[in-house]
């Protein structure tokens, strides 16, 4: 199913407080992986509170990065 920007924003906002994993394409077969909790959803970006062992403590991502497939977002299944 193809999602538009409005659908992506709604999907992200519906998972506030959930565990999240974001895989970012870093070019030439490299990726960066971020694991944490989705804590904020603003009009242009969403904020992930990263696991305690990672620096910095927070990371922000734009919804358009999901749309353009520069990042892949997965949420931990709720019990």
TrEMBL record:
This is Veg protein. Pfam families: VEG (PF06257). Gene3D superfamilies: 2.30.30.100. Coiled coil: none annotated. Transmembrane segments: none annotated. One of its GO terms (biological process) is regulation of DNA-templated transcription. InterPro entries: Protein_Veg. It comes from the Bacteria.
């Amino acid at each position: 199913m193809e999602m538009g920007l409005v659908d992506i924003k709604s999907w992200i906002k519906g998972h506030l407080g959930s565990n999240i994993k974001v895989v970012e394409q870093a070019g030439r077969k490299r990726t960066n992986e971020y694991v944490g909790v989705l804590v904020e959803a603003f009009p242009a970006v969403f904020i992930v509170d990263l696991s305690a062992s990672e620096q910095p403590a927070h990371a922000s991502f734009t919804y358009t990065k999901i749309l353009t497939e520069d990042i892949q977002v997965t949420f931990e299944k709720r019990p």
